[in-house]
Amino acid sequence: MTHITVTVDGVSYADDVEPRLLLVHYLREVLGKTGTPVGCDTSNCGACTVLLNGQSVKSCAVLAVQADGADVTTIEGLANGELHPVQRAFHAEHALQCGYCTPGMIMAAADLLRDNPDPTDAEIREGLEGNLCRCTGYENIVRAVKRAAQAGVRA
Amino acid sequence: MTATQQAPAAELGRARLRKEDARLITGQTNWTDNIRLPGMLQLAFARSPFAHARIRAVDLSAARGMPGVVAVFSGADFAAEQGSLPCAWPVTADIVIPAHPPMAVDEVRYVGEAVAVVVARDRYAAADAVAAIDVDYDPLPPVLDMRAALEPDSPKVHEAGNKCYEWVFGNGDIDAAFSGAPVVVERTYRQQRLIPCAMEPRSVVAQWVGDEVTLWSATQIPHVLRFALSAFFAIPEQNVRVIAPDVGGGFGSKLQVTAEEVLAVLIGRRVGKPVKWTESRTEGNLTVHHGRDQWQRIRIAADRDGRIRGLDVNLLADMGAYLMLVTPGIPLLGAFMYNAIYKMDAYAFRCTGVFTTKMPTDAYRGAGRPEATYAIERIMDELAAELGIEPLELRERNWIRHEEFPYTTIAGLTYDSGNYEAATARAKELFGYDELRAEQADRIARGDKVRLGIGISTFTEMCGLAPSRVLGSLSYGAGGWESASIRMLPTGKVEVVTGSSAHGQGHETAWSQIVADQLGVPFEDIRVLHGDTQVAPRGMDTYGSRSLAVGGMALVGACDKVVAKAKVIAAAMLEASADDLEFSAGRFSVRGDPEAGKTIQEVALATFAAHALPEGVEPSLDSDATYDPDNFSFPHGTHLCATEVDTETGFVAIRSYVAVDDVGVVVNPLIVEGQVHGGIAQGIAQALYEEGVYDDAGNLVTATLADYLVPSAADLPSYTTARTASPATNRLGVKGVGEAGTIASTPAVVNSIIDALRPLGVSDITMPCTPERVWRAIQDASATTGGAA
């Protein structure tokens, strides 16, 4: 067991974990933060995307011990009193159906807009290449990210 | 509440934002894998690494001794109670339905078949113990090719042989249609095996309390599952509760009674603790039922002017190793659709179901209808080329004209409505059809290495599954009705209970809109409940684009009953005769005296108080209705796809995609558009990217999302969508939309690629049309014609 201290959605946690424990399993099964789902086992789908020290990562591809000392933001902590602009835009543009990819897609989109506040359609599509959705055909996801950009996601 | 309450705006047709979203965008969703019960144990399965093998011995001793392991079982440990997974669709009297134990006992017949299970404290301990299970296999020859499987010397999947059934259907004199036909075109198309890949992996939790069991499952069919657990696994129905919490997509793949669901129930009972199983994606690709996998031989006979005389279809359909819930019926759902929107004199259909040592196939978005649509729309282009007729012109010469509806097709279905002319005209306009044809000719003329292709798909589908009498005539094991209940709460709010079981379709929103209009209550005052057999005890669940066309009509029926009950009570409150009342926008008023009235909310409160109800009137407005459709519904549309095909690299880029769909009356255009987008994407995925591949030993080589190419946003184009509307003949005028895009888009894309390359001599490319296959097709054609690309 390895001792880690990690801040998740503004709360500090200290735990002893198996070195092989994935960050996503730490979030879901140790902390009960089930807002972040698991969609695959090869880091292809991106459903488990969270922000690690502000950068989007696939939390199935990070060990919990690697998050020692880090600050993690999940979909559960993205809203700050009111919905994040990307969350609002996903709702407004009907950018989700079953919603399973949505937490990861929103986190990846938030990170994309931090890097590039005014992306073209092609840049959005390339930027979200690591996040798979089976329901929407991505059309409304692209629209939602554009809407969030227009709303000024950095504000 | 006042008697002069403003009438709410009509909800039907409004682009309401979804009620479901609030929990989904904030991570508050209740996926099955989120469930944690006190004392809950985790299951993990040992699965066969062989496509076909006899099980000589299963040694569980090492696994049993590992830390955190509570129990380990093999198939033999459940042989007495695990029975056989059900097939509800014995399509012929002499169909072979092999025993299908949830956990293999003597023999395994596909890679991934469960042979043993660990019950442990957590998923890591369970996985460790699975690795310690030692199974001694005696490998048998795999059976991997449907056509070879029917040869007399083929190894057998089951003792009874590899032929599962043969199903024959037809109408008209097919020999007369073909003999003497000026033109006959014959093609063989391959419907590759697809893996559904709903984003949420399957997950199951089973909890026993006394002799009652609750099963949470990521399923599309909680009601069918409850029935199956009772009917086939001897658990009294009244003791079974099935809950489908939030479910992350299905596309048919969760229309199943799975080994893991049954085993979770049996193991939970055996160990006396709640148990959970959640698959990994690799397990999912291996063991969630697959889709398609057919060889289609199709022949079309026509006159010189393009008029179709007859159509002859001969299928080989890969069942995989066993028959699952509706495995054998899937290709037959296409039997009625090959003739599509076209008139003809004769039609013949034959399907042979074949066993192989692969994962069983079953419903996948469209289920039989995409296959049919692909074959007919591909061969229409081939016929057009043969005859030298413009492909849209050929379609128009043969399609049912709008003034001919209702029209009974050669396959015996009566299409109630449609307007193919209108949808096609709109699609051509949005697409810039004539301009693109001109550009195409120009590129050919100047020898552009990047060719432009235009693909057409004028499709229809049968959905709204299904009239129970039709299902009965096809030997299906259940009816096709749907159920709804309306509960009028004392404060005037409404609970809607539906037997449909949404997993992304937005029923909570759309059903609220329908009920808001029917009862005249605000959209916000309605809550829709579904997916729990204790809350919604009756239902046939969600698949086959049936929820709105069947379940929506059940809602209307239940609302009618609420209004009829409320009218009697309102009449008493207004001291008027019920016959003199009219109901509009949520308010009962006396004819000729619009000032005198009671809202349905006022009636609900008065009914709750029950102080002054008329003699013999029960103090409840709650009502149930069950709707059994008397026909299918027939959405249709015209999809046009423009691709640019690089003849040097084989790379295909979709330049524009126009979809004009006629789904009848639209409840929520936002949801309809979303369904069309996602459907198109899944159809494009079949055309360009996806294929479930087994190697020569029967290993699935596309077991992960690194190998099985579910397209990303970067792989897909933007879509232009529009609608025309020829309302269906049900009261709402609705048809259904869940599968339309998938059915339409695959042939549109492949037709466009072939259209681009036909001048080079290419007339077919096997899906998925990868750059390599496209490039090879160009090379082969070039070698054959001796011409340069």
Name the biggest interface: A-B, 59 and 58 residues
State which percent range the strand residues of chain B make up: 15-25%
- Measured distance between first and last alpha carbons of chain A: 41 Å
Radius of gyration of chain B: 28 Å
Q: Report the CATH C-level class of the largest domain in chain B.
A: Alpha Beta
CATH topology of the largest domain in chain B: Aldehyde Oxidoreductase, domain 4
Query: CATH superfamily of the largest domain in chain A, please?
Result: Beta-grasp domain
Query: What is the CATH domain class of the largest domain in chain A?
Result: Alpha Beta
Number of strands of chain A: 5
Q: What's the mean pLDDT score of chain B?
A: 96
Please estimate the helix content of chain B.
25-40%
How much of the polypeptide of chain A forms β-strand, as a percent range? 15-25%
Largest sheet of chain B: 7 strands, mixed
Q: Order of SSEs of chain A, N→C?
A: EEHEEEHHHHH
- CATH topology name of the largest domain in chain A, in short, is Ubiquitin-like (UB roll)
Q: Spans of chain B with pLDDT under 50 lasting ≥5 residues?
A: 1-7
Distance between the termini of chain B: 76 Å
- The number of helical elements of chain A comes to 6
CATH architecture type of the largest domain in chain A: Roll
